[in-house]
Each structure stands twice: as structure tokens, then as C-alpha cells.
Design goal:
Elements lengths: L1 H25 L20 H11 L3 E5 L5 H12 L1 H10 L1 E5 L17 E5 L25 H18 L1
Parallel strand pairs: 1-2
Antiparallel strand pairs: 1-3
């Protein structure tokens, strides 16, 4: 009797332990729209929603094109997420969208479809082709060391709203 009670107790402990581990594995944090670019930022889901919010809020739309399996995108994402000034400006002054697919708007790929690519659209729904990165062969790409340049371009996008609209 004692032997079967002990065996039954061990069996219950093993089953409950395995069940607890299975439950723990399934409890992952929900995937947010930030995809690692900044969890404190409010992100829109679609390009169309971003255009609507930009017009409604009178804020520029910042579109980040990226892919999960791109090492350059991952490096830029890390630098973007760790930079407090970028995060603060993105959170407070921009409508933010990150896309892992191309849009149907060819204005968002004036020099080709490559990643990472960051483009700005002002509240009048004009794609700001004049706000570019540092590279002549991929005008809208940024690398991790280009974060200060991206900050300047974010400020430029904000200034253009005040002077042009």
C-alpha cells in the first residue's frame, strides 16, 4: 500500500511538473506592433491607417521597411530602440509604422525596394523624397551609426511641417 501511494505521488508530481512547464512555455509576451523598434511607441497597423492618422493629427508619418531575417535591419532596430532621443521623438511627434512587406504605393520605393528603408510622409500625404539618408545608391537606408543623422532628418520632417504646411 505504501509503495503504491509513493508511486502514485511521484507520478502526480511528474505530471504536474510537466504540465507547469508546458503552460510556462506557452505564456509568451504578445507580439506587439513595435516588433522590437520601441514598445512605448504607438504604432499603426497599416499604411492606410498611418496616412489617415498623419492627416488627422497633423504629424508626419515615419515608415520603416524591414525584414526579420535581415542582419542590417536587426542592427538598425537595436540602435533605434536603444536611442532615447529617437524613441521620445517617435513617441510624441510622429505617426509610426513599421512594415515587413512592401506597400502598393510606389512613392515609398522611388529608388528600389530594399531594407532597411525609412521614409517620411507629411500630413498633406506627400512622400518626402527630399529627406534622405547618407548613401547615394540607397537614398533612404540608415545604418546603426547613422542614428544621429536619422535624428536630424526627424527634426527636419518636423520643421518642414511648420514652414510648408
Amino acid at each position: 500500500m505504501l509503495h503504491s501511494t509513493l508511486a502514485l505521488s511521484l507520478l502526480l508530481i511528474a505530471v504536474s511538473s510537466n504540465l507547469a512547464m508546458a503552460i510556462k512555455k506557452e505564456k509568451r509576451p504578445p507580439q506587439t506592433l513595435s516588433r522590437g523598434w520601441g514598445d512605448e511607441i504607438t504604432w499603426v497597423q497599416t499604411y492606410e491607417e498611418g496616412l489617415y492618422q498623419a492627416k488627422k493629427s497633423n504629424k508626419p508619418l515615419m515608415v520603416i521597411h524591414h525584414l526579420e531575417d535581415c542582419q542590417y535591419c536587426q542592427a538598425l532596430k537595436k540602435a533605434f530602440a536603444e536611442n532615447e532621443e529617437v524613441q521620445e521623438m517617435a513617441q510624441n511627434n510622429f505617426v509610426m509604422l513599421n512594415l515587413m512587406h512592401e506597400t502598393t504605393d510606389k512613392n515609398l520605393s522611388p529608388d528600389g525596394q530594399y531594407v532597411p528603408r525609412i521614409m517620411f510622409i507629411d500630413p498633406s500625404l506627400t512622400v518626402r523624397a527630399d529627406i534622405t539618408g547618407r548613401y547615394s545608391n540607397r537614398l533612404y537606408t540608415y545604418e546603426p551609426q547613422d542614428i544621429p543623422f536619422l535624428i536630424e532628418n526627424m527634426k527636419k520632417a518636423l520643421r518642414l511641417i511648420q514652414t510648408e504646411l
